[in-house]
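dumping this here so i dont lose it
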């Protein structure tokens, strides 16, 4: 008797999602696959249509092509964090090779490479936390995705905004990425830009230390996870209620 084939993590999670009713199954979906996981090949008719202003670009995930992340020399701490976060996000989306981080002008990319350029341009924006994402595609040159912010902090926000458009979700209890590895990236059309900025100036949390399972029992690792989640959610305030009110009331 041959040993049973082990079920994969993604297959198990999807099967569990369908069993719990957390995902919709089409009428034409096949019955259970191996070990009870439902078939996921059929598409749901009438589902949401892709945004016509965006294009799907082959990301070369899993191929031998190189992914570059370029920055300007002497980058600040938020910019260096942005480089790490976009590299981390690309790996979670399914990039099998480690992206190469380098300074602008120090490398020559090939025609099939994918280049992410991160930079600051204070003259291009009025809001200090505004950013834009553009795609540059020239014949014979590597495809380039440029993330530009008014400040180094805005560059970091651009990275999280870009990853969210690829299907990532950032919450206080952690992050979630699509179960299936991505083979394409959702990018703005050539000649257009995704421009965004936070809607509110004060964005944050007010942890209330009055419960048995709250921030009063956090250790160093818990606080690190808590604050990292806040950064990815683009929060900028962590305060008690009285302190937060002193910041909000002058804005009303």
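and the seq i came up w/
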């Amino acid at each position: 008797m041959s040993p049973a084939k082990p079920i994969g993590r993604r297959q198990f999670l999807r099967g569990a999602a369908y069993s719990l009713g957390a995902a919709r199954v089409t009428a034409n979906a096949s019955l259970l696959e191996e070990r009870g996981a439902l078939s996921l090949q059929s598409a749901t008719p009438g589902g949401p249509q892709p945004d016509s202003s965006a294009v799907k670009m082959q990301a070369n995930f899993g191929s031998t092509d190189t992914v570059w992340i370029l920055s300007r020399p002497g980058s600040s701490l938020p910019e260096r964090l942005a480089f790490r976060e976009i590299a981390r996000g690309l790996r979670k989306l399914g990039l099998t090779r480690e992206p190469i981080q380098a300074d602008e002008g120090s490398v020559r990319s090939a025609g099939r490479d994918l280049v992410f350029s991160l930079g600051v341009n204070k003259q291009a924006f009025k809001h200090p936390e505004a950013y834009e994402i553009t795609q540059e595609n020239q014949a014979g040159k590597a495809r380039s995705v440029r993330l530009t912010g008014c400040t180094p902090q805005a560059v970091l926000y651009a990275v999280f905004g870009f990853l969210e458009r690829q299907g990532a979700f950032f919450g206080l209890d952690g992050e979630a990425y699509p179960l299936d590895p991505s083979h394409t990236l959702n990018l703005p059309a050539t000649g257009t830009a995704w421009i965004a900025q936070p809607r509110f100036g004060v964005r944050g949390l007010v942890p209330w230390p009055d419960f048995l399972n709250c921030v009063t029992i956090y250790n160093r690792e818990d606080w690190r996870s808590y604050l990292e989640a806040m950064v990815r959610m683009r929060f900028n305030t962590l305060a008690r209620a009285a302190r937060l009110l002193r910041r909000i009331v002058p804005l009303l």
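Residues 61 and 183 are 6 Å apart (CA to CA).
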